[in-house]
Structure formats: C-alpha cells, structure tokens
Design goal:
Length: about 200
C-alpha cells in the first residue's frame, strides 16, 4: 500500500512537471544551451503511518450540593463520568491508545489524590476518589488513587482501540469530611480539575 502511494506521487509529479514545461516553456538556443525548470508537487492528507484520533472527555462532573452528615460515619456521594473514543485512523494492530488521569496539582513525588477546593479560599479542600468502573461496581473495586502512580501522565485509566469504545467511570466523595466543620467557614462553591492524557503505546 505504501509503495502504491509512492508510485502515485511519482506519477503526479511527472504530470505536474510536464504541465509546467508546457505552460511556462523556456527556450534553449545555440547561444543559451541550458535552462532550469522547477519541479513542484503537493501532498494532501496524513503522513502514512501516523495515528489520528479523537477522544471525548467530560466538560464538567458535578457532585451537586454536598451535605454535612450528623455523624462521622461514611456518607458517600457518587456521580458518573464517561470517556469515549469517537474517531481513530491509522492505528496498527500492535498499538493501543492509552488514557491516563491525575489531579491538576498532583506530582510523582507528592500528593497524588484528587481534590476540590473552595473557590474563595483554596486552602479549604476535600478529597474525592476516581474509579474506572460504573457506579454499580464501585463497592467491589479500588479507586485509581488507592496506590501511587508511577508515570508523569498519572493513573492508568483505560485503553482504546476501536471507534465507539467508551469507559463509564465514577467519582466518589465522602461527605464525612464535612463532619465537625464550621458551615460558615466551608460554605461556598468548590472545583478542581482532572487532567486527562492520551498517547499511542505498544500493546
């Protein structure tokens, strides 16, 4: 297939050159026996072997309104999110598209958990967990941030190979973190960022 593309390019170059000579003919004479002709071509499209893909990630994942529990018992609130491979071309059979995720402020040698922070005072933070499974399966799975990640890209989230594949995941926040806090101090809007990273890797 690659050879055919090269052959087609060579033919196109020849045809363009012939046209150029015909349209912009120079003149060779006994007084000027040599001359120059520019050979030009144009290539459209993706370079052969390159992978092109489009992955959709959520714009916002909203926990809604958090409620301060009356006891220190776990009071988990869960919300789903989805990541999907919408388009892919040029992905070879021995390759895959790996997707990673981490908190905006996490580092390899630092705190690697996920947080939302008070927009008026980002020193007030609450941790949440990220799962790579739907909400129904959270109880039997560990969150991604239960063990440290070892790549700068973050936690391994999923792998895609074919267009249309999706990952349905879950974020879980334990509202027990709010227990005993002064509502006046912690009230307000909170936000944080999950940073997604994708790359083509060997299987």
């Amino acid at each position: 297939m690659f050879t055919k593309k090269i052959a087609a390019l060579s033919l196109a170059t020849f045809m363009i050159s012939a046209t150029a000579v015909t349209a912009y003919a120079g003149t060779l004479t006994d007084q000027s026996p040599s001359g120059n002709t520019e050979v030009i071509a144009h290539i459209d499209g993706v370079v052969p072997g390159n992978v092109s893909y489009k992955i959709s990630i959520p714009d916002v994942v909203d926990f809604g309104t958090l409620v301060q529990p009356e006891t220190q018992e776990n009071s988990n609130k869960a919300v789903g999110y989805q990541v999907s491979l919408d388009e892919v071309t040029g992905l070879e059979a021995d390759k895959q598209i790996s997707v990673y995720v981490k908190d905006q402020n996490s580092t390899l040698d630092g705190n690697q958990n996920f947080y939302i922070a008070n927009k008026a005072n980002n020193n007030i933070q609450f941790m949440y967990n990220v799962f790579a499974v739907p909400q129904d399966n959270v109880q039997t799975n560990q969150p991604l941030n239960s063990i440290p990640y070892t790549k700068t890209a973050g936690y391994y989230l999923t792998v895609f190979e074919n267009a249309g594949e999706t990952l349905d995941g879950t974020l879980v926040i334990n509202q027990a973190q709010l227990y005993g806090q002064s509502i006046a101090d912690i009230a307000g809007d909170y936000s944080g960022y999950m940073v997604f990273y994708s790359t083509v890797e060997n299987k």
